[in-house]
Amino acid sequence: MKIINKDLKKGFIELVVENEDDLWIIHTILERGDVVLAKTSREIKLGEKSTRVSMDIALRVEKIEYESFTDRVRIHGIVVEAPEEYGVKGKHHTIAISPGSKLTIWKSRWLEHQLDRLNRSSLVERKIVATILDYDEACISLITEQGVKVIYEIHSHIPGKRDPEGFTTFLNKYLEEVALKTIELTRQHGVKIVIVASPGDLASRIVDLIKNSVDKLIRDYVSTGGCIGLNELMRRDTVKKALFELSIVNAYEILDEFKQYLVKEPCLIAYGIDDVEYAVKNNAVKKLVVSTDLLRNSDDSLRTRVNEILEEAYRRRAEITIVPRDTDVNKEINGFGGIIAILRYPLKRLIE
């Protein structure tokens, strides 16, 4: 996310959406009643003919739609500002926001946790390591928002299968080198997700060698190894989905920690809106995870209550994570009432 201009006294922030994760953030902070200005197009009737015209439109938000792994957020509302010659003011319209879109958001009040999400998204650089290999060569690269940089190209020098013993020795040495370089690159850049792909089962062998040294692994298939295989991988959805996964890795980590406390020290957790709200008000919450389903609930009073909990948690310096729909972690959080917390210290009321 790139923040271009901001004037909180006037209530607006102007920004550019840079990736799919930004779309999810926009989806979580937009609320009914906000005003959004963006370039869009609309069918305009000119005489007996209709034509689609590009224009800047500001609308008052009524509904926001977003689906995981798509490249757009659809914002529905009533037009409040538009070129007068087209006569669209007061009518319903939908603005589609995708990576590259520039928009301005006005709110009557920006909550601190909303500002924090925007600010953090403008600072975070998402990174993935991709290791693509076959029996001849391996290509190990770093994928960032700026593009793809090949860091290592490793040639196997494996002899023919007529020498089974030599073949196995060289293959094992080759795979060990690929695994070590993958781990090395991951640690150097603090990468949480590694994609390993190959034409056959070599990727599975690399996964076995590195699975205890990286946070998350994605196994995929390509028709050829090396940098040609990397180009094939980049044309598919694997990288897009991996980048999306980065937005929920933190939620998975907190959920795992939460479940460990649930078994061993349940006095250090809270779940469900009532208990989490109580813990937040008593300054006991260290980490908080909320599902998008709860945050975007159709009940206005419940949605307002959730936002107030997040705002209070932010003021009390709790770590807040919002998880998107259509993910396993979101479903698990919903099973605990849509909101969970890890506590700094036990609270008597929650123990009783």
Automatic annotation (TrEMBL):
It is found in: Cytoplasm. SUPFAM superfamilies: Dom34/Pelota N-terminal domain-like (SSF159065), L30e-like (SSF55315), Translational machinery components (SSF53137). The keyword Hydrolase applies. Residues 1-123 form the eRF1/Pelota-like N-terminal domain. It comes from the Archaea. InterPro entries: eFR1_2_sf, eRF1_2, eRF1_3, eRF1_Pelota-like_N, Pelota/DOM34_N, Pelota_arc, Pelota_N, Ribosomal_eL30-like_sf. Its cofactor is a divalent metal cation. Its EC number is 3.1.-.-. Keywords: Cytoplasm, Endonuclease, Hydrolase, Metal-binding, Nuclease. One of its GO terms (molecular function) is hydrolase activity. GO terms for biological process: nonfunctional rRNA decay; nuclear-transcribed mRNA catabolic process, no-go decay; nuclear-transcribed mRNA catabolic process, non-stop decay; ribosome disassembly; RNA surveillance. GO terms for cellular component: cytoplasm. Belongs to the eukaryotic release factor 1 family. Pelota subfamily. HAMAP family: PelO. NCBIfam families: pelota. May function in recognizing stalled ribosomes, interact with stem-loop structures in stalled mRNA molecules, and effect endonucleolytic cleavage of the mRNA. May play a role in the release non-functional ribosomes and degradation of damaged mRNAs. Has endoribonuclease activity. Monomer. The N-terminal domain has the RNA-binding Sm fold. It harbors the endoribonuclease activity. This is Protein pelota homolog. The gene is pelA.
